[in-house]
Amino acid sequence: MSTPSPVPIYPEFAPISLEMREVLYPSLNLSSDGISEFTFSNLYLFRKTYGYRVSRLPGKTFVVEGTKEGKSFFYVPCALPDRPVLDELMGGHDYLKNLSESQAGAHRCQLEQWGYSVVEDRDNFDYLYLRTDLAELSGKTYHKKRNLVNAFINSYDYEQKPLRGDNVADAMAVLEKWRESKGFDGDYAACREALELFDRLGMRGCVYYVDGVPAGWCLGEPLAKARMFAIHFEKGIEDYKGIYQFINQAFAQALPAYFKHINREQDLGDDGLRQAKMTYRPSGFVNKYRVVKA
């Protein structure tokens, strides 16, 4: 006798739980576009931020719904549903978020015929970098980054260790110092839970030490059939000049060569963050689209 799925059948929805990973992970992992939000870890860790709830359309796709800034949205990570269901979902939500490039290419004309507009969502584009570019920082483009990394290397006695159960507490200590220095929580809750559950969620990362003291950490996971690696969290103690530039390069060097790209997620329309991400010269973007009623 088969065990009932923890993910209810549409139109029922349920809050995302850890028990849903075995159902959601395989389908999400097969997604080829590489949208950073479409991993089980990301959905689970930000379930409270966006109030995520999930449902499934048998033989078709999953539907994830949430809210942001008072507006309701939904994702269909694996496939676009048939028109009756799509119309029902669009009627009950303000917009469809994170339509992928491949979905937009295949269905834009059809969606427009059905009375919807497909709009480029630049603020949510994921930044893609060649792993070799971040690992090597070669050429004039990366001159300033190289100088900061070299200054860090020449100033401190440093060490990089894979994140494991015996050094999670060191990463937690960095997170607490980061929170204290910033004076606000930001993604603190998601970071803390990610460190607590990294092994169960299938994430991997590194912890960085300066003069034997925990100074930074980085955590992410493979996506797009392991063609790219998404950096979900990166924290450092800024008293150590160049710490973030060092972590960026050191982690790229530590990743296996089969990861061609590193996905460093979106800038969410923040001008400062956009400028910072652009200084690393992305090789491309993971384009995302929003579908709204025309």
Separate helix tally: 11
| Amino- and carboxy-terminal Cα gap | 47 Å
Strand residue content: 25-35%
Mean pLDDT across all residues, rounded? 96
Strand order of the largest sheet: 1-2-3-4-5-14-6
Helical content stands at 25-40%
* Uncertain regions spanning at least 5 consecutive residues: none
Q: Please state the overall shape, judged from the principal axes of the Cα atoms.
A: globular
What is the helix/strand order?
EHHHEEEHEHEEHHEHHEEEHEHEE
Helical/strand content category: alpha+beta
Largest sheet: 7 strands, mixed
CATH class of the largest domain: Alpha Beta
Number of strands: 14
Total tally of structural domains:
2
CATH architecture tag of the largest domain: 3-Layer(aba) Sandwich
The Cα radius of gyration reads: 20 Å
The H-level CATH homologous superfamily of the largest domain, spelled out, is Gcn5-related N-acetyltransferase (GNAT)
| CATH topology (fold) name of the largest domain | Aminopeptidase
